[in-house]
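Hi support team,

I've been running sequence recovery on a batch of backbones for a student project. Most finish fine, but this one hangs at about 90% for roughly twenty minutes before it completes. I'm not sure whether the input is malformed or the queue is just slow. I've pasted the structure tokens below so you can try to reproduce it. Let me know if you need the job ID as well.

Thanks,
M.K.
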């Protein structure tokens, strides 16, 4: 059974940094594109970042471009999200997801096959 498990969330002051990790044991990790999504209270889930199976291509939401960096280590079945210069509006539950490739469907989340349970990021002033 495929399970994705996020970690690294927490409370951080605005302007600070956090690194999220998502491990995916049981997944043929190097065959999947990986993505990070987030959902704030009272809002729809939104795309944050995605990375191709090889790591050669990355995609970011405009709201995080230049501040967040997605990376992966296929040997460790792990994808990371380095979040710098955090803002109050980055407060949300962050979810990692695995999908069959980088497509409009996977970037929207609808095409992702597997999801983690999320980790909470709270940015304070």
């Amino acid at each position: 059974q495929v399970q994705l498990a996020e970690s690294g969330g927490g409370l951080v002051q605005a302007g600070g940094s956090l690194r999220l990790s998502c491990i995916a044991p049981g997944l043929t990790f190097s065959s999947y594109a990986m993505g990070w999504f987030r959902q704030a209270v009272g809002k729809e889930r939104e795309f944050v970042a995605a990375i191709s199976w090889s790591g050669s291509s990355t995609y970011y939401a405009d709201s995080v471009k230049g501040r967040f960096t997605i990376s992966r280590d296929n040997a460790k079945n792990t994808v990371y999200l380095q979040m710098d210069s955090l803002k109050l509006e980055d407060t949300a539950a962050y979810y990692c997801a695995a999908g069959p490739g980088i497509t409009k469907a996977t970037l929207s989340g609808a095409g992702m096959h597997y999801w983690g349970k999320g980790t909470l990021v709270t940015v304070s002033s």
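--
Follow-up from support: It reproduced on our side and the slowdown came from queue contention, not your input. The longest strand covers residues 92-99. No action needed from you.
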